[in-house]
Amino acid sequence: MTRRIAMTFVWAAALLAGCATPPDRVDTASLTDCREIGSEVARIKQQRSAAEEKKDGAWKQVIPFVVVGQYIEGKQDVETADKRLSTLDDQAAAQGCSS
After folding, report:
1. Domain spans in the chain, listed from the N-terminal domain onward
2. Which alpha helices (DSSP H) does the chain contain, by range?
3. How many C-beta neighbours within 10 Å does residue 2 have?
4. Tens-digit pLDDT profile for residues 6-16
5. Residues with Cβ < 8 Å from 51, sequence gap 6 or more?
């Protein structure tokens, strides 16, 4: 019986993580000046910070599968933000933008 409950929690967490709303995306190739890149970097950093808070605050949830789902979603959002920031940093460097 305990194994069945554990599997229910795992499936619920996977379902919650799958329902995550993807962050707004801007095609980095369309960013042509340093001001636009800087604005996008600031926006992504704000999203990353919110994702970190979600991930770190997951333990506050009462229902275990919600904790797991929220942690996974926050972790995925942080990883996505880090990849986007890396791409933007590369583009800024290629265009000679100052940080």
Report:
1. 2-17+30-94
2. 2-18, 34-56, 64-94
3. 6
4. 556 556 655 55
5. 74, 75, 77, 78, 80, 81
